[in-house]
Design brief:
Rossmann fold, alpha/beta, 10 helices, eight-stranded mixed β-sheet
């Protein structure tokens, strides 16, 4: 077909204008990096009806992004596969590797926000570790799903879309590490997995910071505990984490776990007590001996809501113990590991537990 020079020139000009408009649109979008670690959000079931039985950590980050083309409308997205692990199997070394990569990316001028896809079993622990150790005001969002992408009514796609939207939002800056699940925006410090089978699995006794609906953030409160840029800890200065273990309290509890932990030379023992961090009278001497032998004793509670009051139930001042405030045992362990990289003074440790 013959095309006149004039028409060809017009077509070329139109193509240039379209390309320029596309480039300008891309420049206007935030740049978000997705760091993938595995979990249910990268899982696959045998059929569409398998929402609770499936294999986690099977789908790579490139496929996750390719399967959600809507992301290209809200951000310039690229992905990195940091590791591919079900979150219950993550290690301290994994935490360090991930946090150091988040920190490095946060320093790049071409990165506006970071999303971490993560298994839900220990998502709250990783989110809190990043809250304590990554010093940036840029939004960091940790996200997972309760159902694999192969399931009917899978929640991962919308959760990931929301996470990218929040990570690219200027109004999410400075609010610490966030968790987006089931439309809620929660503080990485406060949130916990409280249900193991529903999409509404994550919540906090203090309530969400806000919600994200169709790409718009609605904020209701702000975190007041120290985090990210206001933290005295910096992942760039942490190379190893001390060993901290958890001993749970329960009816008929023995001292076997406490004695074994103390003998192994752990740096701290978190006691997940009943009620207000209560400790059975028969194991108090064992905790006292562990403290005398050098282990820090941190009194936490297995109860979901509320907080441990110092010198109530046990004379913490007398025993030189630390209380975990409102942190559950698993999060108290995270803060203890981080804090012990700087101090083993119990007064300083107690200050840290009040402030973080």
């Amino acid at each position: 077909m013959y095309l006149s020079p004039r028409f060809r020139a017009f077509a070329a000009g139109a193509a240039l204008l379209a390309a320029s408009a596309l480039a300008q649109a891309q420049q206007a979008l935030p740049n978000v990096v997705i760091l993938a670690t595995g979990g249910t959000i990268a899982g696959a079931g045998a059929s569409a009806v398998n929402s609770a039985t499936y294999a986690a950590a099977k789908v790579g980050v490139d496929k996750l992004i390719a399967g959600l083309p809507e992301l290209s409308k809200i951000a310039n997205v690229r992905g990195e596969q940091v590791f591919q692990v079900a979150s219950e199997s993550l290690t301290n070394d994994n935490l360090l590797t991930l946090a150091k990569r988040v920190s490095a990316l946060s320093k790049q001028a071409d990165v506006d926000g970071i999303v971490i896809t993560h298994g839900t079993d220990t998502l709250e622990e990783t989110a809190y570790f990043l809250t304590l150790t990554v010093r940036t005001n840029k939004p960091i969002v940790v996200v997972g799903s309760m159902r694999p992408g192969t399931a009917l009514s899978a929640d991962g796609a919308l959760n990931l879309y929301d996470a990218v939207s929040v990570a690219g939002s200027k109004d999410a800056a400075g609010k610490g590490v966030l968790v987006t699940m089931n439309d809620n925006i929660d503080s990485g410090r406060d949130v916990s997995k409280n249900v193991n089978i529903k999409t509404s699995a994550f919540s906090s006794q203090w309530g969400p910071l806000g919600m994200v609906v169709e790409g718009k953030n609605y904020w209701f409160r702000a975190p007041v505990k120290r985090h990210t840029m206001n933290s005295e800890f910096d992942i760039d200065n942490i190379s190893t984490l001390p060993v901290v273990e958890i001993a749970m309290g329960y009816e008929g509890v023995s001292s076997i776990a406490i004695d074994a932990f103390a003998k192994s030379g752990v740096k701290a023992i978190v006691h997940g007590g009943t009620g207000n961090g209560s400790v059975a009278n028969r194991i108090v001497p064992n905790l006292q001996k562990a403290r005398t032998d050098g282990a820090i004793i941190i009194r936490s509670s297995r109860v979901a809501d509320g907080f441990v009051i110092r010198n109530a139930e046990q004379p913490d001042d007398k025993y030189d113990w630390v209380v975990a405030h409102d942190l559950r045992p698993q999060k108290a362990r995270i803060l203890a590991m981080v804090a012990l990289t700087k101090t083993s003074d119990t007064k300083e440790l107690q200050r840290i537990f009040w402030e973080y």
